[in-house]
Specification:
Elements (H helix, E strand, L loop, with lengths): L5 H20 L4 H15 L3 E7 L2 E8 L2 E8 L7 H16 L8 H10 L7 H18 L4 H23 L4 H21 L6 H7 L7 H12 L3 H29 L1
Helix pairs in contact: 1-2, 1-4, 2-3, 5-6, 5-8, 6-7, 6-8, 7-8, 7-10, 9-10
Length: about 260
């Protein structure tokens, strides 16, 4: 592209920030979002791209021969999905290499981004695998056979509850609190009725599906790489979800006396 009009630059800016917002919503690391935006700007003809990231929004500016266009978009956090992040990375690579006769311009970027859809696993497979993973943890901690069975049932049912609440668009804090309550309540029955000699292991293992590990990992990575605002934001997200989980567990234990 030899020259950019203000209208063309505005269109390019909106396309770049759309890709950046998608990556942020689905859990990409901050430095990856910034690098992707800058690479897109370069391949689309902008002189440079400046981006500011906070947990709830993205501010992006494209520069072209002293002409600047700035836009802001709000970030709505969604379940982590690396398929979207990888797909956007593949788009950038194709646009940079230009290996085929396809016209890799801003229209191509808009078209591909509209076609992107999150690829979710079968919900029943997820429920089964979550139950199996929590049961495996109980096994590693020395739980007896009834504790393993209780853990599998409690975590599987809790995962089903979590999916249903998420489908109805409940706030994530409420989802985590109710899910922890259900898991602890079911696992606690093994102690009340004496079904297992290691009921505490079952109660601890059944709520592992709520560990916000991705949020904490991303928060540390962002902080170490200089994105302090994003790091603190993601760390607080993880802490709040952990607090909600703890409240659900405490209520269930208090109810079971």
């Amino acid at each position: 592209m030899n020259s950019l009009s203000h209208k063309e630059q505005s269109t390019i800016t909106r396309g770049i920030i759309k890709a950046a917002v998608l990556m942020s919503e689905y859990g990409a690391e901050s430095i990856l979002i910034e690098q992707t935006a800058q690479r897109l700007g370069k391949v689309l003809g902008a002189s440079s791209v400046e981006i500011s990231l906070i947990p709830s929004a993205i501010v992006l500016t494209t520069l072209y021969h002293g002409q600047s266009v700035t836009t802001t978009r709000r970030v709505h956090h969604k379940p982590i999905n690396m398929r979207i992040v990888c797909a956007i990375q593949n788009i950038v690579l194709k646009m940079e290499k230009k290996e085929s006769e396809v016209n890799y311009d801003i229209d191509y970027l808009y078209t591909i981004l509209k076609q992107l859809e999150a690829n979710y696993y079968n919900r029943w497979l997820v429920i089964f695998m979550v139950g199996l993973s929590c049961m495996s943890f109980a096994f590693l901690q020395g739980g007896d056979s009834m504790a393993l069975l209780t853990t599998f049932c409690a975590s599987s049912i809790a995962m089903f509850v979590r999916q249903e609440l998420s489908k109805k668009r409940f706030v994530m804090i409420i989802v985590f609190g109710i899910t922890a309550f259900v898991a602890t309540l079911i696992a606690g029955l093994s102690k009340i009725y004496g079904l297992s000699s290691t009921p505490n292991i079952a109660m601890a293992a059944s709520v592992l599906l709520l560990a916000p590990g991705f949020a904490f990992v991303n928060s540390f990575l962002d902080s170490f790489k200089g994105y302090m605002m994003m790091g603190w934001g993601r760390w607080m997200d993880g802490m709040i979800l952990t607090l909600a989980t703890s409240v659900g567990i405490i209520i269930a234990i208090a109810l079971l006396s």
